[in-house]
Design brief:
Layout (H helix, E strand, L loop, with lengths): L10 E5 L6 E5 L6 E3 L6 E4 L5 H20 L3 E5 L2 E5 L1 H10 L3 H30 L5 H10 L5 H15 L4 E4 L2 H18 L2 H8 L16 E2 L6 E2 L3 E2 L5 E2 L11 H24 L3 E5 L2 E5 L1 H10 L3 H30 L6 H14 L5 H13 L5 E5 L2 H18 L3 H10 L4
Antiparallel strand pairs: 1-2, 3-4, 5-6, 5-7, 8-9, 10-11, 12-13, 12-14
Length: about 425
């Protein structure tokens, strides 16, 4: 690791969240980005929207949200009866027919988190106008962003349409436009809001670090990503971040324990999720159960190869490969394996990106519950594997969140340290 050079007056010092490197960053012009020279993590950007513009988009999303959540998106003509499917209708039907825990998992990602995300952005604008310091709101905003899954639900609509077409003719409702607009604007808001810039905007008195002291090396807060020199001390005499007041004395082994605990729990849940039926379809009082793999095989039998690939990738390949990748990264930390750091970081970023797409199957089940459950001739119900599968997705997502990639870079630094 090369020696750090003191920055000039128009530069600030930032410690990278991914690799712990100290980087001097100059003031950025419009549409410029600052990346870490070691791991290429994004350290700063000006290609973002102001809080005022983001709040306007959030208000627009909130206005469209009732149309996206409660109005019918798809309809089928099932045995002479028109049946509508909506997001809230699927969640409610799943809850009242004996699957409340599975319905709760779908509700969190498809209803609660999108609404909470938009409300947080609007509340931040109100706090700015009222000259308040919304420390808790900024922390929560950073935590819930990965759990907003409208884009995943959009793909689930397409998979459901392919799955139902063997039973009935499908009609796309005009309210689907409202859902598409809501999904587009939510994704746009997700990309354009800059949480780092909001921290600086609400706490301008906490200036960025511009000089390094040999006695006090810069520290980085993992919660708000603030680089600072001196801790604050709380009432229990524990060091905390001067900006967000998050604890700074959490030992590394505790994060590793949380990562292992959630990962092992997720692995345990994956066994019944793949063995037990995830859904039951009954025609003329003859019930057939489908597991995750048999559902993929049924799509292959219908000739829907692309849909089979999407379902296999999201429901089987991603959860299992994510488990193996996390085990590999954890073993690299514990046994100090000196493998390629670029390869390790690439794997770590992949599991962060694809983990949320595993919720696709639960969203499809929710839509199928509202479309196909009709009387004794055709009936569709959720199987016991659905809850285990949703729990495995949640637990493995938490595991990737708890894992600290700087532990991998510590091994790299020890390997390349000059005597």
């Amino acid at each position: 690791m090369t020696a750090f050079v003191q920055p000039s007056q128009d530069e600030k010092i930032v410690r990278c969240r991914d690799c712990n490197a100290l980087v001097s960053v100059s003031d950025l012009d419009k549409y410029q980005n600052a990346e870490c020279p070691r791991c290429h993590n994004l350290l700063g950007t000006t290609d973002r929207w102001s809080l005022r513009r983001c709040s306007i988009i959030a208000i627009s999303i909130l206005i469209l949200m009732p149309f996206a959540l409660t109005y019918p998106l798809l309809s089928v003509d099932l045995l002479g009866t028109k049946v509508d499917a909506s997001i809230w209708g699927g969640v409610w039907k799943m809850a009242i027919e004996g699957y409340p825990y599975t319905a709760f998992l779908v509700f969190i990602c498809a209803v609660f988190m999108p609404i909470a995300f938009t409300l947080l952005v609007i509340t931040l604008q109100v706090a700015k106008l009222a000259h308040k310091k919304p420390r808790i709101l900024l922390l929560v905003l950073g935590y819930i962003k990965p759990w907003v899954m409208f884009d995943v639900y959009l793909i689930a609509l397409g998979v459901t349409a392919f799955k139902v077409r063997d039973y009935a003719s499908i009609e796309i409702n005009i309210y689907l436009i409202g859902f598409l607009l809501t999904s587009l604007m939510t994704t746009l808001l997700f990309v354009k809001i800059n949480v780092k810039a909001l921290w600086h905007e609400f706490y301008p008195s906490l200036l960025p670090l511009t000089k390094i002291s040999e006695k006090n090396p810069p520290h980085l807060c993992g919660s708000c990503e603030y680089t600072f020199e001196h801790y604050m001390i709380d009432r229990k005499n524990h060091p905390i971040c001067p900006r967000c007041h998050s604890p700074m004395d959490i030992p590394e082994h505790l994060n590793l324990q949380k990562t292992w605990a959630t990962l092992i729990a997720g692995i345990i849940m994956l066994f019944p999720a793949n063995i037990l039926p995830i859904s039951y379809t009954s025609m003329n009082n003859v019930a057939t159960g489908d597991t995750l793999m048999s559902g993929v095989i049924s799509f292959l039998g219908m000739g829907s190869y692309f849909v089979a690939f999407v379902v296999f990738f999201a429901s089987i390949f991603v959860p299992i490969s994510k488990v193996f990748i996390m085990i590999y990264l954890l073993l690299c930390v514990h046994y100090q394996w000196k493998h390629s750091i670029k390869w390790q970081m690439r794997l770590f970023h992949i599991v962060h990106f694809v983990g949320r797409w595993s919720m696709l199957d639960l969203f499809v089940l929710s839509l199928m519950m509202s479309l196909v459950t009709r009387g004794q001739i055709i009936n569709f119900s959720v199987g016991p594997a659905a809850f285990y599968f949703g729990s495995a997705v949640f637990l493995t997502m938490l595991s990737t969140t708890f894992f600290d990639s700087r532990l991998l870079w510590n091994i790299y630094d020890k390997q390349h340290a000059k005597p």
